[in-house]
Amino acid sequence: MSMEMVRSDVQNEVRKIENELVSVYGFHGPSYVDELRNRIASEEKDMEILRNDLTAGRQKEQNRMDAAHLEFTKLSCEADSVSSAIEQSNRQINVEEKKLQYAVSSQTELAELASAIANIESLLPKLPKADEQKTESLHSMRQVCKKRHVPCRGTNIGLIVRCSTQFSWPNKAQWPK
Description:
single chain; mainly alpha; 0% strand
């Protein structure tokens, strides 16, 4: 191979590379190295600007995320507080409901007692009236029983059992119905 052929091949390769530089990077002229350095510097500058913008954007989004997290924490605390207040209110409502139920049942019992009292009061006039002589007789029998140490327990039942021979009840026809 001759020197001319090698030279021609090298020149062809150089032209291909130059054409490639022109088509890919847009370089023109014989000083490709300076244009390449300028292009690299420009690209580095653009990358630095993008990096700074990205860092600023990331910081801004981090701040927004921190603010959102604080708001979430605040709302969670408020929700817990409201939930606690609702539970306390429910307990108070239950207590008040029990009081109302007790009051209603007491009213019912009072109505039943009033009815029972009215019934007893309606029966009182039908009872035979104790005359003074019978009352005095009962009183004297009680005194006699006390002297004999018979326990009367404050009722007439003890008198009736212990002293039944001294007193007679009205016959059954006179009892209230």
